[in-house]
Design a protein that fits this description.
Elements: E1 2-3, H1 9-36, H2 49-68, E2 75-79, E3 82-87, E4 90-95, E5 99-104, E6 113-121, E7 124-129, H3 145-159
Helix pairs in contact: 1-2
């Protein structure tokens, strides 16, 4: 089985959100502490923006993570004419013949490949993953090689006589 998904998926799904929300929580805690202890620091207490901005960033961060990161599957591999998908301890095999569409994003971080299926699977009618693709500034402007390979494999299966 050849792994198609990036090994950094764990970082994007589990570690980066903790860092993001943790930093904002620490910033908010220091802003509240400074506001409640005006004699501790020289000068006036912090503005309300020091309180509102982290709350706004938490809300925006949650929406962005929910839309782009939390729905990613943990691992995707290619085993012949089958996709092997793993997510939260569950594993499933999906035939490439059941793939209806492969869509790849560019100019996003992390890059995403969304696979839409003809029938319902354990992972829903579609699932997304971060491809193990080359990195660098110029690769952001090129089509994803993993997505191109999947599209070509699905197309070859469709054209094959039954």
């Amino acid at each position: 089985m050849r792994r198609l998904s990036s090994s950094s998926t764990y970082f994007y799904k589990r570690i980066f959100p903790v860092l993001w929300f943790g930093f904002l929580l620490v910033f908010l805690a220091f802003a509240l502490w400074g506001r409640l202890q005006p004699g501790l620091f020289d000068g006036p207490p912090p503005d309300a923006m020091f309180l509102l901005m982290p709350l706004l960033m938490v809300g925006i961060g949650f929406l962005v993570f929910r839309k782009l990161v939390f729905d990613l599957v943990d691992e995707v591999g290619l085993d012949g004419d089958w996709l092997v998908v793993k997510n939260r301890g569950a594993q499933g095999r999906i035939a490439l013949a059941d793939v209806m569409n492969v869509n790849a994003t560019t100019m996003t971080n992390p890059r995403r490949i969304t696979v839409m299926l003809r029938t319902e699977s354990r992972f829903g009618r579609s699932f997304s993953f971060v491809p193990a693709s080359p990195r660098g500034f110029l690769s952001a402007f090129k089509p994803d090689p993993v997505a191109i390979e999947l599209i070509e494999r699905v197309d070859a299966l469709r054209r094959a006589p039954r």
